[in-house]
Amino acid sequence: MAESEVDLSKKYDAVIIGSGAAGGMAAHVLTTHGLKVLMLEAGKKLNIEQELRSMEWPYNNPHRGELPPGSQSLTHNEYTIRRPPYGPGFEKSKNLYSYIGSSDYMKNIVVNERDNPYTGTNYAWVRARCLGGKTNIWGRLALRLSDYDFKAKDRDGFGENWPISYSDIAPYYDKVDLYLGITGVKENLPYLPDSIFQRPTKFTCAEVTLKEGIAKMGRVLTQYRAGVTTDGLKHNKYRSRCYGRGACSRKGGCDIHAAFDSPTGLIYPAMDTGNMTLRTNSIAREITVDPQTGKASGVHFTDSQTMKDYTVRAKVVIVAASTLESARLLLLSKSRLYPNGLANSSGHVGHNFCEHIMGPYVAGQATDLVGKPPTLDDGRPGSFYLTRFRNLAEKHPKFIRGYGFEGGSGSSMFPPGTDNPGFGASFKEEIRKNQGSYIGMGAFGEVLSRYENFVDLDPSVKDKWGIPALRFHYKFGENEHNMAKDMKETAQEMFEAAGFKIIFVSDRVLTEGWSIHELGTARMGDDPKKSVLNQFQQSHDVKNLFVVDGSAFVNASCQNPTWTIMALCWRSCDYLADQMAKNEL
Ligand SMILES: Cc1cc2nc3c(=O)[nH]c(=O)nc-3n(C[C@H](O)[C@H](O)[C@H](O)COP(=O)(O)OP(=O)(O)OC[C@H]3O[C@@H](n4cnc5c(N)ncnc54)[C@H](O)[C@@H]3O)c2cc1C
Ligand code: SF4
Fold this sequence. Notes:
Radius of gyration: 23 Å
Number of strands: 18
Bound molecules: flavin-adenine dinucleotide, iron/sulfur cluster
Largest sheet: 7 strands, mixed
Distance between the termini: 29 Å
Helix content: 10-25%
Number of helices: 12
């Protein structure tokens, strides 16, 4: 959409900042309610059809899928040894990307770290500045939270309970399932509620062996619950059903949009209502406030290309810039009325920052599959999820909360084992013989939400647009490190129970941020002294301000957050529309 189509003299019903999972969902719900909405997105509108090349063969790519010369993505050691913003050693790289930007398919999606610096403790901060944000490249594991998460404090005494229960959000999870599509298998687990699933994917032989092996231990392996429509969605003309083809695991998205992404799943349909205006290349730098009423009055933003500044007015401001950028924006929005930043009378904005710890991993081999005919296992939008088993019925002596494993096996375009030693015909023979037999899995565990883990604004470093950078004060604690040791031990024990030959096992913890599941910087709660938002993600201080992304989470649970972000956002936007109709905002 061109700039001229945005009427800056007009007062919109709502302005939405950000176009990812949260912003897209807000747009869908509010435009359906008939509100006139403006969406401001900091990044560009990509030609998504060209960008998501899940059917491109590596030999058709100029660099076999790797980044072009002059571009570099950060490695684990670079995150842990060097401190951002990046200095010596990176001079040759004009474009510097987060660790996830290591392929040619991501270079236009993730940010150039040079333009978007941050400081403080080590953190692998992955950001996608483009229409749709990180949903263009997300891994699609779509899990629900349960009362084991919402009421975790009742179980172990740590932190705070959420101001909602599962029964409050369950109908909204259902709406998200039906509107966007999800594949999986029902398991009837109280700690991982089922969705309304479409056609499931199939396990490989090694996965069936693992499922049966761990069932004896009372543990559950289920099909990857992917935010992918396998049966199709009659109400969405922009998305096809999954044909189980292509390099699905290639970071860079699904070219037929069977996998959910915010542009085709939410934003294009919202624009089709005629109620939405989109302005990309628009970086919100401050939420403006009416000094008379103390309410939000609109947004001050900069055009990322022309560097020109604008202000737009709205009756309601909806912040959906992703957990860390939303906290940054609230902290940037200082005024005489709100000297600590907007919505921050509690002092909790930026605090209670939490996510998932990653790293512990096991790789093994189902030796009975060596030499068996190859199977076609590419084109599955995910393999398996091994559900949480710690601190459910029993208490672990060394840590609270839990973790799950994501993993996979089977024959694929780049068979596992190609990094084994060897050369020529005998090497190829070795790869062919072994390829379908490898299996691996890695853990994702809950990082406790602690006040002392926080972000604030750096007093001197600014981004390319002169906006103060975010500064991290964030470290894993003892609970996380104890959990990581247990992850390694149980991973090994389960592979042994399945009869696999263990090839590799590690308890190495990856840099903070590696999970890309940042949460909690403006948490919900009933007490305005200890929380930023109420149960509808509405600011306690400023009633026409809503923060509808992962910022609102009270704890991280160990389940991936995106489906919950969207269910919460839907619930909050229904409430918002209702309040607006009653003139309560
Ligand atoms: C490789 C990868 C794999 C992942 N796998 C999974 C998974 O399997 N399951 C899962 O649940 N989650 C996964 N995630 C996380 C998931 O992508 C996020 O939880 C989700 O996208 C969050 O949505 P959001 O709207 O909060 O943020 P985003 O999707 O990041 O969108 C935020 C948008 O706001 C824009 N923005 C930021 N600042 C401003 C500003 N100042 N002004 C205007 N616009 C702004 C950004 O440009 C961006 O487009 C993964 C992420 C990645 C990158
Ligand atoms: S397997 Fe399905 S979701 Fe994955 S790229 Fe292919 S069509 Fe898309």
